[in-house]
Design goal:
- It is flat and about 50 Å long.
- It has helices spanning 40-55, 58-61, 64-80, 82-92, 95-105, 120-123, and strands spanning 3-4, 6-8, 11-13, 20-24, 31-36.
- The protein folds into two domains: 1-61, no CATH class; 80-129, no CATH class.
- The relative contact order is 0.10.
- The strands form two sheets. Strands 1-5-4 form a three-stranded mixed beta sheet, with no helix packed on it. A two-stranded antiparallel sheet has the order 2-3.
- A hairpin with a 2-residue loop joins strand 2 (6-8) and strand 3.
- By secondary structure, it is of the alpha+beta class.
- 49% of the residues lie in helices and 15% in strands.
- The chain is built from six helices and five strands, in the order βββββαααααα.
């Protein structure tokens, strides 16, 4: 299984110590992904890159309007991948957590927290699909 690496400074990089771990689907007990395991050095690298990007990188030189446009683009990308995100969320967490997530996405939807999974078509906000 391919290891999913971190994204630092726009590049995919492995954990500094090369460690990774399997992501287990609780419902089946089966591994469905292998991801890099962050250690202290990885966290320090991420913080340093984020700090540099904020203080000296392109982000620091953007106007508030341009930053807003980028954040709106990010929100659009999340909406476009909502189904993928919901599947990962549902596979990684027990049913009740998935249902709570659905409830946060669409508070007016009558999700049974203990009796069924969150189905994206049932709980996606109008206009998000």
């Amino acid at each position: 299984m391919k290891i999913e690496h971190f994204v630092l400074g726009g590049e995919r990089v492995p954990a500094a110590d090369g460690k990774s771990f399997a992501v287990i689907e609780p419902g089946s007990g089966q591994s469905f992904a292998e991801v890099a395991e962050a250690g202290l050095e990885d966290v320090e690298r991420a913080v340093q890159r984020a700090y540099w990007a904020f203080e000296q990188g392109r982000w620091a030189r953007l106007s508030a309007t341009d930053r807003g446009r980028i954040l709106l683009q990010a929100a659009t990308l999340v909406r476009e991948r909502l189904e993928d995100i919901a599947v990962i969320e549902a596979r990684c967490w027990p049913r009740n957590h998935a249902a709570r997530t659905c409830r946060r996405m669409r508070p007016d939807h009558p999700v049974e927290l203990s009796s069924r999974d969150c189905i994206l078509e049932d709980c996606a906000r109008p206009g998000m699909r």
